[in-house]
Specification:
Largest sheet: none
Helix content: 40-55%
Distance between the termini: 54 Å
Number of helices: 5
Strand content: under 5%
Number of strands: 0
Structural class: mainly alpha
Order of helices and strands: HHHHH
Radius of gyration: 31 Å
Length: 194
C-alpha cells in the first residue's frame, strides 16, 4: 500500500478553483451538499434530484419530469397499465383474423389503430428518451456518491496506516510514551509525598 506523508485535507469545502468557501451558498446549487464534496469539487447529495445545478426553470422542469418518469415507469403499476393497453387490442386482432365476431367498439378498426399508435409511436418515441435522460441523471448522482465513498475509505485507510502523519502511527507513539512514563511492572509504587 502506498504510504502518504500527510492526511488529505478536509473534504467539507469544494477544493477546486472558482468555488465559494464552505458555509456560503454556491451559485447554481439548489441545496447545499448533504454529504460534502468530492476532491474534484462535485457536490454529494442524498437525493438524486439535488445533484444537478438548478439552472433555468426550463432545465429544472425537465430534470424533475425525467426523474419522475424514470422512477414511475419502473413500477409494477406501470407494467399492468402497459399490459392492459396491449391486451385491449386483442379482440380487434381476433376479429380481423375472423376468429370471433364483432364485439362493439373493441373490434373496430379505429380502436386497434389508436392502440397501435399509443404503443408504437407515443410510448417508444416519447417515453424511451425521457427514460434515458432520467437514467443519466441517476447515474451522475450515483457516480458522485460512489466517488465520495471511495475518497472517505481512502482517508480512513490512510488514518489506519502506521506511516501516515496524524494517523494510527501518532496514536501508537502516544501510547508508547504513556507506557514509558508509567512505573515498570513489579516495581514498588512510589511513596506518596506528603
Amino acid at each position: 500500500m502506498h504510504a502518504m506523508s500527510t492526511v488529505s485535507p478536509s473534504l467539507t469545502a469544494p477544493p477546486m478553483a472558482g468555488t465559494v468557501p464552505s458555509g456560503e451558498p454556491v451559485p447554481g446549487l439548489a441545496h447545499p451538499p448533504t454529504h460534502g464534496w468530492t476532491r474534484l469539487g462535485h457536490p454529494v447529495h442524498a437525493r438524486t434530484i439535488d445533484h444537478h445545478p438548478a439552472g433555468t426553470p426550463y432545465a429544472r422542469f425537465n430534470k424533475k419530469l425525467a426523474l419522475a418518469i424514470t422512477q414511475n415507469v419502473g413500477t409494477m403499476t406501470c407494467f399492468w397499465i402497459f399490459c392492459v393497453i396491449s391486451f385491449s387490442s386483442l379482440l380487434a386482432v381476433l376479429y380481423a383474423a375472423h376468429i370471433i365476431g364483432p364485439v362493439g367498439l373493441l373490434t373496430a378498426n379505429g380502436f386497434i389503430l389508436c392502440v397501435s399508435w399509443i404503443s408504437q409511436n407515443f410510448i417508444q418515441l416519447v417515453l424511451l428518451p425521457a427514460l434515458m435522460v432520467g437514467q443519466n441523471l441517476q447515474n451522475e448522482a450515483a457516480d458522485a456518491r460512489a466517488a465520495k465513498t471511495f475518497e472517505d475509505v481512502e482517508r480512513i485507510i490512510n488514518l489506519l496506516d502506521v506511516h501516515t502523519q496524524g494517523g494510527l502511527g501518532d496514536l501508537l507513539a502516544a501510547i508508547a510514551e504513556l507506557k514509558a512514563s508509567l512505573p515498570a511492572a513489579g516495581a514498588p509504587p512510589a511513596a506518596p509525598r506528603g
